[in-house]
Specification:
Family: Belongs to the drug/metabolite transporter (DMT) superfamily. Small multidrug resistance (SMR) (TC 2.A.7.1) family.
Keywords: Cell membrane, Membrane, Transmembrane, Transmembrane helix, Transport
Order of helices and strands: HHHH
Protein name: QacE family quaternary ammonium compound efflux SMR transporter
Strand content: under 5%
Number of helices: 4
Number of strands: 0
Shape: flat
Number of domains: 1
Radius of gyration: 15 Å
Distance between the termini: 12 Å
InterPro entries: EmrE-like, Small_drug/metabolite_transptr, Small_multidrug_res
GO molecular function, one term: transmembrane transporter activity
Structural class: mainly alpha
Largest sheet: none
Length: 106
């Protein structure tokens, strides 16, 4: 169950990063409230996951899911662009997360 908490927490990190952008510097009250609620929920789920998962595994995976997800959201919703080198680093991030999981007990 802790892996489910961790994955959902990572996905929620992607959501709050997106709603934070949509809050326009916290001037859009609705998006600001959504950002706060979703980020707190993400933190609570991360805390639940770390009850049994090592922090050396849980935190990088949580951050990685949020980072990769935010890159994808930026590309799809906001028209962001990645250079070929940027794509390479995103692939390295994915490989690093998989490598951490494969080499860490938990």
């Amino acid at each position: 169950m802790n892996w489910v908490y961790l994955i959902v927490a990572g996905l929620l990190e992607m959501v709050w990063a997106t709603t934070m952008k949509l809050s326009q510097g916290f001037t859009n009250v609705t998006m600001t409230v959504i950002t706060i609620v979703v980020s707190l929920t993400s933190f609570v789920l991360l805390a639940q996951a770390t009850k049994t998962l090592p922090i050396s595994l849980a935190y990088p995976i949580w951050t990685g899911i949020g980072a990769i997800g935010s890159i994808i959201v930026g590309l799809v919703l906001f028209g962001d662009r990645l250079s070929p080198l940027g794509w390479g680093f995103m692939i390295l991030l994915i490989v690093s997360i998989i490598g951490l999981k494969m080499t860490t007990q938990g």
